[in-house]
Amino acid sequence: MKFMMFVCTDTAPDTDPTELPDIHKWVAENDSRGRRLTGNVLAPTSAATMVRVRDGELLVSEGPFAETTEVIVGFDLIDCADLDEAIEVARTHPMAREGRLELRPFADLSA
User: Fold this and answer.
1) pTM for the full model?
2) DSSP three-state, residue 98
3) Which residues form the YCII-related domain (predicted)?
């Protein structure tokens, strides 16, 4: 089961003083197990562009977007047996303590 894992900042990070897990080790472990299919860090919100069409008109806005307090800073595409395994993979990600991780399964469009 494939999940998009959005890596986000959070306004209330964990205050645990223990050292954060190493992101390079997390990536290497999950890549070697075939659970992480791809992932990357995103450019800052100042590089963001929003595209919308309203009443047939193209509306383009460039970041940063002032109303944004929690920002998607990266992503990982993971392949797990089920949601429980995906939660365990997310739990060990360093940003689980410094930010938040959103797991979203891909929709089955064949149904």
Assistant:
1) 0.85
2) helix
3) 3-105
Helix, strand, or coil (residue 8) = strand
CA distances from 8 to 41, 95, 103, 111 (A): 10, 8, 11, 31
Residue from 39, 40, 62 nearest 49 by CA = 62
Neighbours of 90 (CB within 10 A): 20
Q: Which two tokens stand for residue 27?
A: 């990536």
Q: Which residues of the chain carry a pLDDT beneath 50?
A: none
pLDDT score recorded for residue 2 = 96
Percentage of the chain beyond pLDDT 90 is 70
CA pair distance 16, 37, nearest whole angstrom: 30
SS3 65: coil
Confidence (pLDDT) at 68: 66
- Continuous segment of H or E residues that includes residue 102: strand 99-105
